[in-house]
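Q: What would this chain look like folded?
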Amino acid sequence: MYITFKRVIDLVVSLIAIVILSPLMVIIAIIIKLESKGPILFKQMRVGKDKKLFYILKYRTMRIDAPKDMPTHLLKDPKSYITSVGGFLRKTSLDELPQLINILKGEMSIIGPRPALWNQYDLISERDKYRANDISPGMTGLAQIKGRDELEIDEKAKLDGEYARDISLLKDLNLFVKTFYIVLKSEGVQEGSKQ
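A: My prediction, written as structure tokens:
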């Protein structure tokens, strides 16, 4: 029952957020365009509900010569690719705002497992064990507030599965509020490989 209601919430909240945040989104787009060559938006193939592929939208935070299909935390020297405005957008998670369009289109939810890259086979496979690929991915989720990039693949997949098993309005509200706290503290963001 809540799953249907959750989609309605996603539609309403994403539409309201786009309207309210549109001036900020336009300003960010202008700054990106003025700072570096390349498109304003970055599109990347990700894994959605039932492993259906879709293109996630983000503000471009890296130079156009950056590797396209590699998670940033696995790059040896990501800061050499990140633009100056990109660093700020990533730290504040403002680069994620275009995903409101993905939510509006039904490709994502506000709350859910972060969508894996199409070639993150280890994460996709691990999520299969916990049925976390059976639900819509989200802008934020349980794994995001429990460690984000710092989590190992198996731990991240377990948390995603825990969320998938027990989706509720109360849990979504709790995760939504906690996300703001995590973003303000810039917790769990890892720019570069652990080695």
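DSSP finds seven helices and four strands in the chain.
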